[in-house]
Specification:
Blueprint: E1 4-6, H1 8-19, H2 33-42, E2 47-50, E3 79-80, E4 87-88, H3 89-103, E5 111-113, H4 114-123, H5 129-132, H6 139-152
Parallel strand pairs: 1-2
Antiparallel strand pairs: 2-5, 3-4
């Protein structure tokens, strides 16, 4: 069985979007959210190694540099301008995943099934949305998506 390498926030984003009924389709950046989401939804028994690095979603992205970092070699830096002090997506995502690893009681390199991860997420929701809500997103909307996504995936009753 192939083990997927995923950042925790990527899997949470998939669950949230799934809860909101988002259609997963190819993105202009070329990343693999749509294919990973299809696998997650179809097979919660999929094995995942959680990483603090480029993952299955990042690898085909046109903004991924050869050193595995996100987007700083493109003409316009891939930054989050909605923050008071704009930072790169790489720095933002690394810090976000560090906080998620801590909150979820996990470490980079840890492996478990998607289903086991979702059970852990379910145990810490509500609460988790305070960490994983992205800039410009409302916590209530993030929580709603997480809860609906967990329910659609059969984890939350």
């Amino acid at each position: 069985m192939t083990v997927m390498r995923l950042r925790p926030h990527h899997l949470l984003d998939i669950v949230t979007d799934y809860g909101h009924g988002v259609e997963f389709k190819p993105h202009p950046y070329g990343h693999a959210v749509h294919t990973v989401a299809a696998q997650v939804v179809a097979n919660p028994g999929s094995q995942v190694r959680f990483v603090l690095a480029a993952d299955e979603i990042c690898c085909p992205c046109r903004h991924l540099r050869s050193d595995g970092q996100c987007g700083t070699d493109v003409p316009i830096r891939d930054v989050l301008h909605q923050l008071r002090e704009p930072i790169s997506k790489q720095a933002y995502n690394d810090e976000l995943d560090r906080r998620l690893f801590s909150y979820l009681g996990m470490s980079p390199g840890e492996e478990m099934t998607v289903g086991a991860f979702l059970e852990r997420v379910n145990e810490r929701t509500p609460g988790l949305e305070k960490i994983c809500t992205h800039p410009g997103e409302q916590e209530e909307r993030r929580l709603e998506g997480l809860e609906k996504g967990l329910a659609r995936l059969g984890v939350r009753r």
